[in-house]
Prior knowledge:
alpha+beta
Amino acid sequence: MSLAALAVCLAASAAAQNPMYGANTAPAAPPETVAASTAPAAASTTTAPSGEASGRGFKVGGAEPKAKLARPLHAVIHKDAADWEPLSLRAGGVPGSADDSVSLKVVKVKGLMKGENSRARSSARLHKGKKDSRWLVISVYPKSLERRRTHFEIRLRIFEGFVEEAEAAAVTVTDRRRTSGRPLDSFDLREQAIEYESEKPGSGQIVVAELDPRPGASARNSGRLEKAEFADKDLGFVNLSWSVSGLKAPGK
Length: 252
């Protein structure tokens, strides 16, 4: 036996007798085995964190929340205004999308809401209230109610930047005397001692898309009144919308 062969045999014999021999040296694995064993580790390090862990507000399933629509509201609407009675008040709708229109005697027919639709015009006035408050009055004048001299009003009482009260009414001028050519709301009629009747709905909701009680040409106010229930059979359930540019200060 050659010296080289004898050395190999002695080394193999030593390894068999000593269990610690070569413990710190791992046997080499074939290339395919190494790739397969490291694949799970690579996948675990690239998995995106959950919504709670990432802090981005993502919902489970990867869907991103819808962007909140920014509405130009220059007065604060209380959260509990959505529960006010008889008329609730909330922010909603798309700014700039409303028009001046009125629908009377609205009923549900085969799942659809139908009524007597009418073109309209609208105006906005600011009036003095009690204790330094202001009333923002949006008046909507339907073409179909011109003969009976009836229009609708949405009234919001503003105090220290908050909407503290919300009303709606159908206002009918009963005075036989001629009134001025410009549209008059109930505050104007009272100031000019012109007789009128006012009926408030028993229920309904006001939805505001734009709100600006600051006098000026740049003021924008838009929104809608929905499901306003009037006792007057010629009105019934009323839906209406308004879009007004500009706001006159009290006394102007």
